[in-house]
Amino acid sequence: MHNALRRLAGIFLGALLFAFAATSASGQAQEDVLVEPGQTFTARVLEVTDGDTFGVRRSIGGIVTIRLHGVDAPESAQPYGRAATRAARRYVGGKDVRVAVEEIGRYGRAVARIEARGGDLGALLIGDGLAWHYREYAPNETEYARLQKQARGASRGLWSQASPVPPWAWRDRTSGPGETSVEDRDCSDFDTQPEAQRFFERHRSDSSGGDPHNLDGDGDVSRASGTFEY
What we know:
about 230 residues, alpha+beta, five-stranded mixed beta barrel, two-stranded antiparallel sheet, 6 helices, 8 strands, about 20% strand, SNase_OB-fold_sf
């Protein structure tokens, strides 16, 4: 009787492992689809990481990580960081959007515009006072500059603060030894490698580089793919 139960348990466990492996392989096959500058496509927004970073699934299949072109939203630990994330979710979370790829960032993310029913997502967030015009990387976006000036003049969102700190300056301040343990992360904080990879890419920003959370502690990031061993 005991032997029969052991055999049944073994068969059941084997089936579970097989199903998990098949699901993982399928998920990996859909990760990080390559796109090119100038490419446009429709997609469903699956994940709003924060106000300027998104995971989308193309209508023809494949998942792409998007970094908004010309926009830098406050980090989650900054004032209005969570408000920016909530606003982005309200505008595009779970919705079908149009993506226009402007360039590929140095860490492989698609830097792109996202068009939703309400209009250009970057313009919406900047106009709400929940993101900055990233002038260094999009100096010709005069509409973004105009909307930021307008939001600032109206003291909307982050501009209600006396001296709001730009996200790029905040990252420079918090990426060194003084970064608090509350914001620090290591691989044990993530369930999967893709999840850790997304966090790694988000905080190894295209503007400042570096690995403030030391996720790539052994320095094995591939220059070609931007991925690290988990």
